Amino acid sequence: MPHTAEYYLERLAEGSITPEEWNALQTLLSAAENDAAFAEVLDRQLQQKAAAPGHYPQAVQHIQQGLAARIAAERSTTQVTPVKRLTPRRWMAAAAMVLAALAGTWLLLPRKATQPGQPVAARTPQLAPGINGALLTLADGKQVMLDTIKNGVVALQGGAEVRVVNGALVYENTGTGLAYNTISTPKGREYHIILPDGTGVWLNAASSIRYPIAFTAKERRIQITGEAYIQVAADARKPFYVATPLSQIQVLGTAFNINAYEDEGAEVTTLANGKIQVTGNTLVNGNVLPVTLLPGQAAWCRQKELRVTEGDVEKALAWKNGIFSFQDADIPTVMRQLARWYNVEVKYEGQIPARTFEGEIGRTLRLDQVLRILTKTGIHYEIDGNIVTIQP
Amino acid sequence: MERTQLYNEEELLRRVAGGNEQAFSEVVDHYAPVVYAQLLVYLKDVHRAEEVSQDIFMAIWRNREKLPGMDNFPGYLYVSTRNKILTVVKERVMATEEPPEDRLHSLLTDPASAVEFKELMNSIRRGIELLPARRKEVFMLSRQENLTYDEIASRLGLSKNTVKEHISEALTFLRDYLNRGMDVILVGLLWLAMAGF
């Protein structure tokens, strides 16, 4: 042979191998006695790569997801250690209990991934990302869990039909009577609702919306807690109002995001397009002064404080697009978001490390994967059950 | 960057042996970039390289009870990786009479195809911009000034092997970059920015 194993492997790696060399390599490879020579070259290359590895975060993420799925699949076929999986019957019973007891027991339920191919580690449910789901409270107090329903009629009330279409709640055959429904998402759930007038509402985790089953009044009014993105259907004759714990928003145009989580300290309403007017519920300098937002602007509202700031629409809507987006976010800010999505409680040991984060992380990752990214900046953590402790 | 040794590896491997998936995914995080990059060099397809990486780590997971007694885990992992590569190289080389066309290589060497694939050429340029400074310098000396490894080594005061490794890693990175598409890589970059690289 005119050339060594190393020569051919290098040509192959570069992609510059000629047809003649290809044939020579075929001959070399088909003789088992050459395996050792090839192995030696490959060993050396691997050692070099290991000394200064490149960064392939996308590839690693895909590999991790694939492995999680394969491990889960093997476990379910071998059943060596039976995981506490509930049978359908017992699941129904558990669901009934949940309806009575509300949040807190969600962990007991088997979780379903929102999309196929994004498996969730079954044995560590508290680490799994949030999924699609919510609790619907009807006017008569009846509650329906929307987690597992993909399509179908959920309820009939006052002539209105409530259906789930592709995992989103839709109102049809607008009824008459003035009745209110509430949809609330616990931690670890998000949900998409289409209101009777066609307005679309995306609810983030730990949030709620209260609305009439038919907008028969002169004005359309809904109430929001937590975080929601709202795309208001145009109807010039019926102005649209949103009430949050701290403010009133009059919608003069279309799409905006409200972040009104009480633990965030301030409400931020970011306008994507159209025009809205925000009024604080408390007096500002003794006055009720509404502010009007233009696209890209945000209203920042606290007790006795309301101002217009430059907003970041992309960042404000990141959650709806399946991403955590952080900009100059300190650790408590990051952890509050993670706590809501992964349904965990966050504790701090000693002083909270003074670091800020910038960047985006997919909400489909498991919590341990997200936290591991944070450790690269020198943060330490411990997970015990559903409590995450941040250590200095 | 301390990367070769995984912090607390013994303890992690003990937890993996006990069936702890979180510990396992930490081990995978640490070693997967090396395994994946080496597979990509020979498979030239990001999806295949990801798939075979999974096969390799899956085999480690299935044999996890062996891990605690092992005094050289990286050695064990790299031998499995090398054996797997040899198998897939054989399969790939035996599968066709002629070498399949390598798009990255033709773009980098053939000016005519570079004109034809102007868009791709632009993404390669963007990819090159993302290389670490020293790696980019080595790569440009090799591609634009057509210097040999020896010439680059003496000009920059590096060993020939370091030059070789820079170029091979630059090519692997560009292959991953091109093969994966721009939008995806942007998210990856944000991730890196976040991780403080």
From TrEMBL, chain A:
Residues 182-272 form the FecR protein domain. InterPro entries: FecR, FecR_C, Ferrdict_sens_TM. One of its GO terms (molecular function) is sigma factor antagonist activity. Residues 324-390 form the Protein FecR C-terminal domain. Pfam families: FecR (PF04773), FecR_C (PF16344). This is Iron dicitrate transporter FecR. It comes from Filimonas zeae. The lineage of its organism: Bacteria, Pseudomonadati, Bacteroidota, Chitinophagia, Chitinophagales.
UniProtKB/TrEMBL annotation, chain B:
Keywords: DNA-directed RNA polymerase, Sigma factor, Transcription, Transcription regulation. It comes from the Bacteria. Residues 28-89 form the RNA polymerase sigma-70 region domain. Residues 123-174 form the RNA polymerase sigma factor 70 region 4 type domain. One of its GO terms (molecular function) is sigma factor activity. SUPFAM superfamilies: Sigma2 domain of RNA polymerase sigma factors, Sigma3 and sigma4 domains of RNA polymerase sigma factors. Gene3D superfamilies: 1.10.1740.10, Winged helix-like DNA-binding domain superfamily/Winged helix DNA-binding domain (1.10.10.10). GO terms for biological process: DNA-templated transcription initiation. One of its GO terms (cellular component) is DNA-directed RNA polymerase complex. InterPro entries: RNA_pol_sigma-70-like, RNA_pol_sigma-70_dom, RNA_pol_sigma70_bacteroid, RNA_pol_sigma70_r2, RNA_pol_sigma70_r4_t2, RNA_pol_sigma_r2, RNA_pol_sigma_r3/r4-like, WH-like_DNA-bd_sf. Belongs to the sigma-70 factor family. ECF subfamily. This is DNA-directed RNA polymerase sigma-70 factor.
